[in-house]
Amino acid sequence: MRSVKDILKSNVLATKTHNPNLKSTLNSESNFPTDRQNNRVSNYLNQVETFKCATCQDRGIILDGDVAYPCICMQTRKLENQFRNARISRDLMKCRLEKFRLDFYLADKRDSSHREAATRALNASKSFVEECKVNPHTLGMLFTGPVGSGKTFLAASIANELMDAQLQVLFLVVPDLLDELRATYKSEINEMDLLDTARMIPFLILDDLGAHNYTDWSRNRIYSIINYRMNELLPTIITSNLEINEMDDLIGMRTTSRIIQSSRIFRLTVEKDIRQQLYHEREGKK
């Protein structure tokens, strides 16, 4: 019976003599790769590991003979950049109009007003998206209502549907926007660049207008955005937990007047905060 040592020895010899024409890339004094070869292999492995797309190796195209065609990762990158530029949060990316649940507005069967109002807002949102595909200068929309009544979901759904149609959208949470504008005084970011982006983007969503302690400075910034967009017939989607008369006091009559002129207004009401309903629904399944 052959010893293990003899078997291993014969296997090594077989490997060495399997292809007599093969030029050895090993060090002449050792059967192990040189440092240079190790570095070359290591660099190659590191390069492979850093590819985001193994199919095209981040080139964005796939070669098939003399024919080149775009890799599917390019569409994924385009969508990612679109959401990033629109400033839509990861959670809101999932919002779509077909996912808007009218059953949240049926707490009391004797009172259908909540559902009727939500249905009107949903249908108007669908019509708005279709209109924007052929006319980028239509009226905007204002959704008002208490916390947890579905305003932001509708606004985000509109934003996502517009981006699906390859239209440019910017989604701004108003308190965050004002904080960012204030921060420009301590950074190299230009305040006018931020304002101009909000003014001139084809479709703007202003979420949570009113959830802020407004000063003359902040009122003037909001006014400059709303006024410019009204004059240029650029649609703006606004959500607010304020009623119209409360807007006059907080953001000023000039701004409120222009919002009314340039928007269709829908009020959403609900018997119970939708987030609470979702919480109980989720926990009830556990």
What is this entry, summarized?
This protein is of the alpha/beta class and 286 residues long. The protein is 51% helix and 12% strand. It has a domain of 192 residues: Rossmann fold (3-Layer(aba) Sandwich), CATH 3.40.50.300.
Can you put this structure into words, describing what you see?
This protein is of the alpha/beta class. It has a domain at 86-277: P-loop containing nucleotide triphosphate hydrolases (Rossmann fold), CATH 3.40.50.300. It has 11 helices and 7 strands. The chain has helices at 4-17, 35-50, 72-86, 113-134, 151-164, 174-183, 191-200, 216-231, 244-251, 253-262, 274-284; strands at 61-64, 67-70, 140-144, 169-173, 203-207, 236-240, 263-267. The strands form 2 sheets. A 5-stranded parallel β-sheet has the order 4-5-6-3-7, with helices on both faces. It has a two-stranded antiparallel sheet with strand order 1-2. Strand 1 and strand 2 (67-70) form a beta hairpin. Helix 7 packs parallel to helix 8 and helix 8 (216-231) packs parallel to helix 10. The termini are far apart. The relative contact order is 0.11. The model is unreliable at 1-33 (pLDDT under 50).
